[in-house]
């Protein structure tokens, strides 16, 4: 058995109206998706999606002709490639999907078999007025979600605090609330400096007053001393790590006790193979593992399978903020968008691998050829 072919394609969905992502100073007028297909010599095809994987095409010969089932070997090669080129981890996801088909096992069983379902929290992505955010929170509660994440980053902190206060008043304790401060990284054109420790602590004190569950990315991702100090100085859980790239960086976060909640995304950091090992380390340290999932439904399912099957978690991120961000927009590469049930729980099923079907017609229409 061997890998016969690897194909990478790029797609863009026009967004009309645009999506005003809270972490981006430029409204998004298109949503990109990179699809990687790994085919074995019996015609089975594994699917992955993630970053554009710039530079990966020059290294595909390292996988062609190899046994697809040697996942640890492939993950080590991808880790080396990640140093020299873009984030290549969608290929690891595709290999998991292919191996699941070869073995007749769902990805969550491959990850450890601990569970085939996982509860979701609604992750908002738009800055709305206090009344509009309160209405959105009531909607999430009515749809069965147990938790919701609110984005900070408006023109002033006072505006952010007003939104949080209005949401808490609207839903009481019916929803667990998290706040994403979005200070860990910036878009390439955004030169605004991240918060200093003192400002992060000021925000933490206000979040404590509203019984917020976790405070996400309150400082730059490399401010290890600040995160450790903030974790000691507030009763909030401190979350982060979504765009941290390398294994040694996560080891530093663990050793210096920087975070309570670790959020690496399998399609951005380490892939499913290495991320499973990290999840076990995080759980052994008494911390929470619950990945970032702000891509499309393929990455969302990869993270959900990995987490549910290995260490489990209270709830995993579900990007969902209609009308600007809907399952149909988010999951345009798929025939069926990913949706939880009316209790906010995502049933992963028992189909081999990730159990996904691509919408080939729509992918053909959205394909970028140059």
UniProtKB/TrEMBL annotation:
Pfam families: MR_MLE_C. The keyword Magnesium applies. Its cofactor is Mg(2+). GO terms for molecular function: hydro-lyase activity; magnesium ion binding. SMART domains: MR_MLE. Residues 130-237 form the Mandelate racemase/muconate lactonizing enzyme C-terminal domain. GO terms for biological process: carbohydrate catabolic process. Keywords: Magnesium, Metal-binding. This is L-alanine-DL-glutamate epimerase-like enolase superfamily enzyme.
């Amino acid at each position: 058995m061997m890998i016969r072919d690897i194909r990478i394609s790029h797609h863009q969905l026009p967004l009309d109206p645009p999506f005003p992502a809270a972490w981006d100073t430029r409204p998004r007028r298109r949503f990109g998706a990179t699809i990687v297909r790994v085919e074995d010599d019996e015609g089975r095809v594994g699917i992955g999606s993630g970053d554009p994987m710039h530079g990966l095409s020059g290294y595909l010969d390292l996988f062609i002709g190899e046994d697809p089932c040697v996942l640890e070997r492939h993950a080590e090669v991808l880790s080396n490639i990640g140093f020299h080129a873009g984030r290549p981890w969608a290929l690891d996801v595709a290999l998991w999907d292919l191996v699941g088909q070869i073995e007749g096992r769902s990805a969550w069983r491959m990850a450890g078999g601990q569970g085939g379902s996982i509860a979701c929290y609604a992750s908002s992505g738009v800055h709305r007025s206090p009344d509009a955010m309160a209405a959105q929170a009531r909607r999430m509660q009515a749809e069965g979600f147990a938790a919701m994440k609110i984005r900070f980053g408006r023109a002033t902190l006072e505006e952010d605090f007003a939104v949080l206060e209005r949401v808490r008043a609207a839903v009481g304790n019916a929803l667990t609330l998290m706040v994403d401060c979005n200070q860990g990284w910036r878009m390439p054109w955004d030169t605004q400096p991240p918060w200093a420790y003192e400002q992060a602590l000021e925000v933490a004190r206000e979040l404590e007053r509203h019984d917020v569950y976790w405070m996400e990315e309150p400082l730059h991702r490399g401010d290890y001393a600040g995160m450790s100090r903030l974790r000691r100085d507030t009763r909030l859980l401190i979350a982060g790590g979504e765009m941290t790239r390398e294994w040694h960086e996560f080891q530093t976060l663990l050793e210096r006790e920087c975070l309570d909640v670790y959020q690496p995304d399998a399609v951005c950091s380490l892939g499913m193979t290495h991320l499973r090992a990290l999840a076990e380390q995080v759980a052994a340290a008494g911390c929470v593992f619950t990945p970032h999932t702000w891509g499309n439904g393929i990455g969302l399912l990869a993270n959900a399978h990995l987490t549910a099957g290995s260490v489990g978690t209270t709830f995993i991120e579900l990007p969902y903020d209609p009308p600007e961000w809907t399952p149909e927009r988010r999951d345009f590469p798929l025939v069926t968008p990913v949706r939880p049930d009316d209790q906010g729980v995502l049933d992963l099923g028992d189909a081999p691998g990730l159990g996904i079907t691509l919408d080939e017609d729509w992918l053909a229409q959205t394909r970028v050829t140059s």
